[in-house]
Amino acid sequence: MRPSLRRGTLLAVAALTASAVQFTSPAVAAPAPAAAPCGPLDVAFVLDDTGSMGGAIANLKTGINAIVNDVVAASGGDYRLGLVTFKDNVTVHANFASGNAAAVTNYVTNTLAAGGGGGEPEASDEALNTVVNNLPAAGRPQNVDFNGAWRSNATKFVVLVTDARPGGFDDAHTAADVTNAGQRANDALGKGIKISPVYVPTSSAFTATITPIMQNYATTTGGVSTQTTSTGAGTADAIRKLLSDCRQTDVVIRDQVTDTGAEPNPNGTVWNSPDIKVCPSLGDCAGIQPVVGGTNFIHVKLNNASAASTGTLKVYRTPAGGGTTWNNATNGDWVYIGEQALSVPTGGAVAKIPWTNVPGPGHFCLLARWVSATDPMTFAEGPNTALNTKNNNNIAWKNLQTVRGKVFEPVKSWFTLGNATGREAKTDLVLTGEKPVAGAVVIDLGPRLFERWRAGGGQAEGVKQVGETAFQFDSKRSALLGVPLQPGERYTAELTFTPEAPGDYLTTLVQFVEGEDHGGVAYRVITDRG
Questions:
Q1: Long-range pairs for 206-214 at CB < 8 Å and ≥24 separation?
Q2: Domain check: are 74 and 212 in the same one?
Q3: Same domain for 209 and 130
Q4: Which PROSITE patterns match (predicted)?
């Protein structure tokens, strides 16, 4: 998912072409720099450095400069390298750090050596566990923590080089180790990391066991499995070849019906995706409000005009509202619901994820994220969910609430507002009606949020106070302005709709921060005569 695939790039090219006609000679224009074919790269080398690996290590030493130079060039200089070795334990030599080519190259060239090991098997499965899952050293035979989380906007590689079966930390290969290796492949798939193993068959005794494990790493994660000669000759060349595999796909979850997949999305609202809905079963449906206490199924349409893409669709929930924070490690304000690993063919597919024991009151925002080794985020995710969604077509946000009631009978819903900017910010709550509710719409801020609004100057448009902390909105357009919020704060306001005529209405409440949409809710209010 690279900017070169986007409509915005085509527009930029057109603009440059238009401006070029002003030059009298093309010779005065400097040549454009070569494009980085892979974009940002995170590459972790996981190396078996036991005594039997001497030939492969020697070959790697002679080729490490070429390998690293390839990474630098393919990433356009936007890369991070990690280096871990293993025997029956795990040793972290280099954590991810920007531009650390010299440190990794120097270690491999001048320090890395094959020796020891105490016999086959080795802890390759646990070394992968360390790297894929960023594990700390505590409680493990591992020297230091593996730090530096994988970047969501990077193409992510693990290069595993070994001649041994996986054996965990107990120096014994059992069925449990095969299962553990399979789980590491599944972990990597869920994080959009390719595992590309290089098998060095120093002995043919275990080839039949090792080969399918290596192939599973590759096929599960979208990587490439390679085998060298028994002497380790060709190890460096194999690594160079597999790191050149930067094929890109582009799965899109739309923000609007008119969304073309451009990044950033130049259109408006990014919190009412038409590609996310809740159904009572695996069968298709028009979309329902989640049934509290029951099992629902979240259907997410994945649109794909590119080659087939393998990855994981993950979904999360949070109380309905705006200003939600995201954190790649903790999920921020979002609660993980579930995920589905799948291959999305050209033309698209629908992921269907069960949502069990839905908590009350049943009004939620839903967030969907497509995580794929061949389709990383184009823009690194930050703390602002709305901005992440706008920037990346791998992310979509759904916040449509259906509120049902009877004429002249009040029906309640909620809106939670927060501050995802990382600094104190003033926020506005703006209510508009695409098909305004025929009747009263009242928001009750509650004591704490009311005091915040008053501290911000108590400004409003199109509202009248109808209680100590409550205001009635004009159903067409109203606003509470300048509410100061500290970073990470979240407040929930209660909404009451009292329709005066039967109908199917649509009203939106949106949180703006300094004029920028930070999320909202579309309330579909359906009433009958009773």
A1: 206/120, 206/164, 206/165, 209/165, 209/173, 210/163, 210/164, 210/165, 213/165, 213/166, 213/178, 213/181, 214/160
A2: yes
A3: yes
A4: VWFA
- The residue assigned the tokens 């969910």 is 385
CA of 252: how far to CAs of 259, 277, 287, 302, 347, in Å?
Answer: 9, 16, 20, 6, 11
| CATH number of the domain enclosing 494 | 2.60.40.10
Q: Is residue 23 part of a domain?
A: no
* Of the residues 243, 264, 293, the one at which a domain ends: 243
My answer on whether 154 and 229 are in the same domain is yes
**What is this structure's pTM?**
0.89
Same domain? For 210 and 268 the reply is: no
Together in a domain, 394 and 406: no
Could you tell me if residue 3 is inside a domain? Answer: no
Q: Mark whether 129 and 152 lie in a shared domain.
A: yes
Looking at 200, 216, 243, the residue that finishes a domain is 243
pLDDT tens for the 530 residues of the chain, in order: 444 333 333 223 223 223 222 323 333 344 444 567 899 999 999 999 999 999 999 999 999 999 999 999 999 999 999 999 999 999 999 999 999 999 999 999 999 999 998 889 999 999 999 999 999 999 999 999 999 899 999 999 999 999 999 999 999 999 999 999 999 999 999 999 999 999 999 999 999 999 999 999 999 999 999 999 999 999 999 999 999 998 899 999 999 999 999 999 999 899 999 999 999 999 999 998 888 899 999 999 999 999 999 999 999 999 999 999 999 999 999 999 999 999 999 999 999 999 999 988 778 999 999 999 999 999 999 999 999 999 999 999 999 888 888 999 999 999 999 999 999 999 999 999 878 888 899 999 999 999 999 999 999 999 999 999 999 998 678 999 999 999 989 999 999 999 999 999 999 999 999 999 999 999 999 998 86
The total of structural domains in the chain comes to 3
Quick check: is 16 in a domain? no
Q: What is the CATH number of the domain that holds 349?
A: 2.60.40
Task: Please list, residue by residue across 233-251, b when 16 or more beta carbons sit within 10 angstroms of its beta carbon and e when fewer do.
Answer: ebbbebbeebbebbebbbb
Chain centroid to CA 522: 25
Pairing of strands 364-371, 516-528: unpaired
442: its two tokens: 């009242």
DSSP 111: T
Angle between helices 54-75 and 101-110 (to 10 degrees): 170
Residues of the domain holding 53: 41-243
